[in-house]
Amino acid sequence: MDTTFVSPAGYIDMCPPNNWGQLFCNAIERERLPGMSTVEVTAAETMIRIEGARTHNLKNVSLDIAHNALTVLTGVSGSGKSSLAFDTLYAEGQRQYIASLSTYARQFLNQMQRPEVDSIEGLQPTLCIDQRAGLANPRSTVATVAEIYDYLRLLMARVGTPSCTVCDKPILQQSPQQILEALMQLPEGTKLVLMAPVVRGRKGAQRDALHAIRKAGLVRARVDGELLELDSIPDLAVRKNHTIEAVVDKIVIRPGAEARIAESLRLALRLAEGLASVSYLTPELADQAKGNVWTEEFFSTLYACPDCGVSFEEIEPRTFSFNSPYGACPACEGQATDSSTCTQCGGARLRPEALSVRLAGKNIYEICSQSIQASLEWFEALPVSSDQQPIAKPIIVEMLHRLRFLVKVGVGYLSLSRGADSLSGGELQRVRLATCIGSGLVGVCYILDEPSIGLHQRDNDRLIASLRDLQQQGNTVIVVEHDEAMMRHADRLVDIGPGAGNQGGEIVADGTPAEVEQHSTSLTAAYLRGDRQVVQAGPRRARQKKQILKLQGASLHNLKDLSLEIPLGLLVGITGVSGSGKSSLIGQTLVPALARALGQDSSDVRRRSSVEDKQVRTAGPYRSLAGHKLVDKLIEITQTPIGRTPRSTPATYCGVFDLIRVVWASSRTAKQRGYSSSRFSFNAGAGRCVQCQGQGQEKIEMNFLPDLFVTCSVCNGSRYNRQTLQVRYREKSIADILEMSVSEALVFFENFSKIQRLLSSLEQVGLGYLCLGQSSNTLSGGEAQRIKLATELARPETGRTIYFLDEPTTGLHFEDVRRLIGVLNGLVDRGNTVIVIEHNLDVVRSCDWLVDLGPGGGAAGGEIVACGTPEQVACEPASLTGQYL
Strands 562-567 and 548-554, how do they pair? Predict the structure, then answer.
C-alpha cells in the first residue's frame, strides 16, 4: 500500500522530537518533487489567496490572508471592506459549497453568483456572522438561535419527570388491563373504533407501515384523518407529515364484548408499540348531535395517571417544541403574543402535556424564563441520578458550553426565552456566535461584521478573548471592524481605502498592527499613532438649570423606578454596559412618551425611521413627564432600512430626485414634447423601460442553476425608454445622474440651491461616495441612518428640536466619527438637543452631558450610576464607563 503525506513546511518544523515525527519529516523531504519549493507546497495550505477582486469598487485587489489567524479589515466607510469580506470571500465560499451539491439539491437553494474575482485559493468552509435582522421571526428565541433549546428539549424528553395535567401526580405506565377497564366503562351502546397509531406525524411514503398493517390481516386505516381501504390508499407525499392509524376493530360496547375488545387491544398495542387510539360515539351524543360528534381518546402503556386514568402520548423532543403541532399550545398555536397573553398556556406557548414534564421541579418554560446567567448556575448545580448520568451528562455539557460563552461575551442578562426579533444587531450576532463556538468546528473561515457594535468596552474585551478562543481552536477569523482595541489585538491588520466609493477599493496598508501604525499614507495609521484626533479640544456647553426635560418613575423591563433629567440644548450621551436599560429608558419610554406629549403620533416619529414602518408604539410605564413644553419637535433617527426594494434609492428617499426630475421637465426638449416631471420617474409612468419596468435588470430563472440577473437588453440598464433618454440637460440624461456619486452631483447642480442643500447634507455626513441611484437594500445600517440624518439636516428647523440616535457610529471609521461629531455639534449649536445611545469613547468624550446606567446588565442594571460631564463621570468609582474614560 502506498502512503502519501501532504503537509505545509510550517507544520514540519513543528513536528515533535519523536521517531514518528522524524520519519514523517524525512519522508516529506525525500518525496518532494524536483523544483518544488517550500512556498509552492505551503501557499494554498496556509493561506487564502485572493487574486484580482473587482466586486463593486474593488480595484483588482490581491491579498493573502493567513489561515488560523485573526485578521481585521478596516478603512473608511465605503472603502470596500464589505465588498472584499462578504461579497467576495463569503460569496465564493457559499457558491463553492452549493456547487458541490447534486443538481437535484441545488434547485431548492438560493444560489449565489460567482463574485468578480480572478481566483481564490485555499478558501476554507466559510461561515458569515453579520448584523442582519434575518431572525425577526416571533417564534425564534435566544435559546433556539443558540441551539440551547434543541438540547434542552432532548434533555426534558429523556430525563424529565411527567406529571398528570389534572391532579399533578407523577405519571406511571398504564397496563393493557387498565386500558380495557377504561373502555368497558363507556356507556352501553357506545359505538367504538379501535385503532393502532403506527405512524404519527412522520414524513415519507410509509410503505413499510402499510405493509405491516396488511401483514397483520387488517384491511382499513385512517390516513391523515380519512378512513380508507388499504388497497385504495394513494401514494403518500414524501415531504409531508402523515398519521396512519390501522383500524383494528369496530364494535359496540355491550355485555359479553370484553373478550373481543381485549384481543383487539392486544393487537393494537403490538402494532403501535404500546399505543392505542379510539374514536367513539355514545348514545347520548348520537341523539344530541344526530350522530356526527365522535370523541377521540389516546391510550398508552407508557404514560398514564394512576388516579385520573389520563393517558399521554410518548414524550419526545418535539413534545417541547412550540414550532411543532405536537408541542405547541392548541389555543395560540405556539405564537409569541406581545399585545395579549394566551389564557390557556399563560404565554408559555406549549401544550399542557409539555409543561407537565419537570426537571428538578422546573418545566421547560420556567427554565427558559431565567436569565442566561441564572440558567448557567442552575444547570451547573443540577442534580442527576447515577442511572441517568450517561444520558444527561453529554447533553448538559453542550448546553453549559454555550451558556458560558454567552455569559463571557456579556449577554448573561438576556433570558433564554427572549425573542430574537427584540435583540439588537450586536446581541443577535453574539448569540449566533455561541452556536459556532459550541459546534467545535475546526478549519473553518469565520467572517464577522463589526461584532463590537452595541458593546461596552468591558464587554468588548470579553468578545476579543472569545474570538481568540475561536481562532486558537484552528479556525480562520476575519473581522470587518473599526474598533481600535480589536485592531490592536489582531494578528494582521488590512487597511482599505484610501477614500470611499471610487476613491477606495485599494489595499493601503497590510501587516501587523505595529507595522500598519507606522504607515505614512494610511488614514487609520494616523489615528492609531495619535497624529489625528477624533475629539477636538474645546469648552463644553453650560447646562441651563431651567432647561430640563424630566421623566420620573420609569419601570419598563429592568428599570428600577428610575427618574431621569435631560438638560436641553446639549449633546447628551446615554451610556452603560449591554443590558443596563439604555434602550428601555430612552427608545421605549422617553421617546414615545415625549411624542405623545408633543401631540406627535408615534407612528409619525417612526416614519422618519423607515418609510415602510408604521408601527405605533406605546411608552413603557412611568409616572410623569415634565419640561416637554420647552420642546417643539422630536425626531428619532434609527438604523432601520430606508426601503426594502431595489427601487428605493438615496436620491428618492431624501427627496432630491423629485427636484432633479423637475429640472429635466423644465428643459426645452421636455417642454416641446409635453413631458412633466412624472415622465422621469423609473417607478411608474410612461418614461420607464417597459421591458424591465424601470429596474434596469431582468431576472432569468435557470432551473437547476442560480437565477441570473442580466442587464436589460432594451434599456441597457438605464431604466428608461429611448424617448425619455433623449431629453438632456448639460449633455446628461436622467439615467446619467443616477450613476453619479453625491460628490459629483454636488458639482453638477451647483446652480440649484434646493438640490445643493440636500446633496450638501449627504456630503456633510460622509456619504459623498454613494451613488444617487444605489439600491437601498445594499446599504448598511449605518449608511441608512446617516441618510436619514442628512435628510433631517436639510429640513427647516425650529431650533427647539430633540434628535435621538441609537449607536450612530455603527460602521464608522475614526475619520467618519470625527465628521459625525461635527454634524451633531452643529445641530446643538443651532439650539437643538441631541440624545445619543453610544459606546464609542470618542463620542462619549465629546458629549456635554452623560447619563451612565448600570452597574450591570439585566437585573443588575436599571439604575443611574452617574451623570454629569465626562470629567465628572470619570471620577465616579461605581461607573464602568468612567473607568474607561
Answer: antiparallel
